[in-house]
Amino acid sequence: MAEAEDDSDIALRYIHAGLRLSAQEADRIRQDSLKRVLGSRKLLLVLDLDHTLLNSTRLDEVEPEQEEQLQRLLHSQQEAEHKSLHHLPQLNLWTKLRPGVHDFLARTQQLYEMHIYTHGNAEYAVEMAKLLDPSKRFFAERIISQADSKEKHVKDLAVVLGTETATIILDDTISVWPEHQHNLMQAGLSPYLAGQFQDAMHHMSSFNGL
C-alpha cells in the first residue's frame, strides 16, 4: 500500500515531474537559497505575467478590423530585434509584451534572481517565457504555473523556495497573495503603459540594501 502524502509536503512539479519536498526539506533549501543569492548580492523577484509583463487576447475575441490592424503591426516589426506583438495560433492567442520589458528584465537580473509565477497553465507559462526570455538568461527553469500552487487561485511563496525576507513580488492582483502582502508591489493595471517598468525598477531598488 502506497504511503499517504503529507499535507505539509510541497509539490515542485515545475522543477521535476512528481517532485515533492517535506516542510523540513523545503526550509533547508530556502536557507541554502538565501545564502546563495545574498552571496551573489541579489534578492529574489517573483513576477506575474498577465497585466504585469504582457497581455494576451484570444483570437476569437478580436474583431475583423482589429485583426487587420494587428496583422499590419505584426508585419511592420519583422526586422525588430525585440518583437512586442506575437501571433500564437497554437495557443489561440495574440500576445503583446509590455513596452520596455526586455530592458527591464536585462537590468533587473543584475540585482535579482527572477521567477515567473502565473495563474495560467504550464503550457501558457512556458510559451510566454520563450517570448520574454528565449535564451533562458533571466528565468532559466524558474517558471511556476497554476498547477504548482498549493491552493487554487492563491499564490504562495512556499513553492518559490525562497525566504520571505529576501523576496519581492510584482503582480497586478493583490488578492492572490493573502499571506505575503508585505512582500508585494502592485503592477499598474494599464497593460502597456510606457515608463511603468522604469518606475517599478526605481521602487524596487529601495528594497535592495546590498
Q: Explain this structure to me?
A:
By secondary structure, the chain is α/β, with parallel strands linked by helices. It has two domains: 19-53 and 99-205, Rossmann fold (3-Layer(aba) Sandwich), CATH 3.40.50; 55-97, no CATH class. 28% of the residues lie in helices and 19% in strands. It has five helices and ten strands, in the order ββαββαββαβαβββα. The protein has helices spanning 23-39, 64-76, 101-108, 122-132, 196-205; strands at 10-11, 20-21, 43-47, 54-58, 85-88, 93-97, 112-117, 143-144, 167-171, 184-186. The strands form three sheets. The chain has a five-stranded parallel β-sheet. Strands 4-6-5 form a three-stranded antiparallel β-sheet, with helices on one face. Strands 1-2 form a two-stranded antiparallel sheet. α4 (122-132) links the parallel β7 (112-117) and β8. It starts with 9 loop residues before the first strand and ends in a 5-residue tail after the last helix. Mean pLDDT is 84; it is low at 1-5, 191-197 and 206-210. This promotes the activity of RNA polymerase II. Keywords: Hydrolase, Nucleus.
Largest sheet: 5 strands, parallel
Which structural class best describes the helix and strand composition? alpha/beta
CATH class of the largest domain: Alpha Beta
- How are helices and strands ordered from N to C? EEHEEHEEHEHEEEH
Mean pLDDT: 84
Report Rg.
18 Å
CATH topology category name of the largest domain: Rossmann fold
Estimate what percentage of residues fall within beta strands: 15-25%
Number of domains: 2
What's the overall geometry? globular
Given as residue ranges, the uncertain stretches (5+ residues, pLDDT < 50) are 1-5, 191-197, 206-210
Question: What is the CATH H-level superfamily of the largest domain?
Answer: HAD superfamily/HAD-like
The appropriate CATH architecture of the largest domain is 3-Layer(aba) Sandwich
Q: Tell me the strand order in the biggest sheet.
A: 8-7-3-9-10
Distance between the termini: 51 Å
Counting H and I runs of at least 4 residues, what is the number of helices?
Answer: 5
How many distinct beta strands? 10
Helical content (DSSP H or I, runs of 4+): 25-40%
Organism: Coccomyxa viridis
InterPro entries: Fcp1, FCP1_dom, FCP1_euk, HAD-like_sf, HAD_sf
Function: This promotes the activity of RNA polymerase II.
Domain FCP1 homology: 38-210
